[in-house]
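Comment thread on ticket #2218

A.B. wrote:
> Attaching the input chain for the structure job we discussed in standup.
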Amino acid sequence: MNYTTYFTNQSTETISADLIGRPLTYRSNNQVLGGYIVETEAYLGVKDRAAHSYGGHRSPANEGLYGPGGTIYIYAQRQYFFFDVATRQKDEPQGVLIRAIEPIWGIEQMCLNRSGKSGIALTSGPAKMMQAFGIHDKKWDLHFLSDSPFTIDLNDRHRKNAQKIATSPRIGVNQSEREWANKKLRFYVAGNPYVSRMKKRDYRSDHGWK
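C.D. wrote:
> Ran it. Output below, let me know if you need it in another format.
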């Protein structure tokens, strides 16, 4: 399955859940960095009060969301950067935020990129993941996945299967927007220590994989 088909012919919620366990890699200086996706969040466009495109808001800063499914949307908050992929058709601004990966490839370089941080702290959050990749700008914003150094492997034979994909409300959504703050649009591998805010008592020795 190609990116266009995958990211446009399914609902954003379905994509967000299906991405769990798929390899996400970033090629940097002929080195592959990355791991298995363990946490995502779905953002449902103009009706979603937590989405950057709520109410049809559109600007150069969020134009990536308006691209065809498979377009990269990188946004910044203060000095931190976040990696999203647009879903659905062009001008239907929905997307998936990749919140965390379990690191597998290029771990030594990712630790260097994170100023020596290692273990669970390496990629257990969306800004941490981008720092681990060595990304500190929006250079790849608006690029299509296949025209970038990022790869999401859609081959089912290469994915890891979670014992349970848990759901919860998204992290950091304004609680005054009660309806959207409570929607279970966050998907993650239950028991995986690299999931952001996973309590230590909930860690599984098998990291939640089958």
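A.B. wrote:
> Thanks. Noting for the ticket: The chain has one domain: 3-199.
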